[in-house]
Amino acid sequence: MSRTIKNGVQISGSALYEPEFDTYRKDGDVSSMRYHNIYGTTSHLVIAYDEKNKRYRGERFFAQLTMPGLANGERCKFSQEKQEAYRR
To answer: Which residues neighbour 65 within 8 Å (Cβ) at sequence distance 6 or greater?
Structure first.
């Protein structure tokens, strides 16, 4: 998910990834599977889990995984967020 402000309105974009079960692989202690972006076929993630070391590793079609938010050009769903006024 990423957020931005355009014309004074906060807009968010979010991507949803679904598993491609036929890509599941197990190589020794490492299991992996590919996940595709439901909004476009060029974006995908590969998540691997190392059972021995109890660690996950993720690779994203763009550069990083999802922590920095959406990558430029990544397909997503946009929504306008409601602004709430807070009183003190």
So the answer is: 45, 58, 59
* Residues 22 and 31 sit within 8 Å (Cβ to Cβ): no
| CA angle at 40 for the pair 17 and 80, rounded to the nearest 5° | 80
Question: Residue 23, SS3?
Answer: strand
pTM summary value: 0.64
- 24-53 pLDDT, tens digit per residue, is 999 999 999 999 888 876 778 899 999 999
Would you say how long the chain is, in residues? 88
Handedness of CA 14, 58, 50, 18 (dihedral sign): positive
Contact at 8 Å (CB) between 38 and 27? no
State the amino acid at position 50 in one-letter form.
D
In a 13 Å sphere around the CA of 83, the CA atoms on its Cβ side amount to 6
